[in-house]
TrEMBL record:
One of its GO terms (molecular function) is DNA binding. It comes from Thauera phenylacetica B4P. Residues 20-68 form the HTH cro/C1-type domain. This is XRE family transcriptional regulator. It comes from the Bacteria. CDD domains: HTH_XRE. Keywords: DNA-binding.
Amino acid sequence: MNMHNPPHPGEILKEDVLPELNLTVGEFATHLGISRPHLSKILNGHAGITADMDLKLSEALSQPPGLWLRMQATHDLWQAAQRPRDTVKPLRLAA
């Protein structure tokens, strides 16, 4: 993981995409076919991007499927790597 503290994809939507589209949270939620509170949770980093949400965003923003899901995975992996945890020894494959 080369990136230092990658942003939550909701942050990108909130700070870059919505202003560029000149849409309110409610307008964008309606366009996506989701509730305003659910979109708000995503925008504030309290909910993650699911596969279904990735497809909605990809269609709405004319982007390739998987883009927002990869951003979420990168964010989640970096966050998980920052937490203390027990390491797991590698297994040896039988020859």
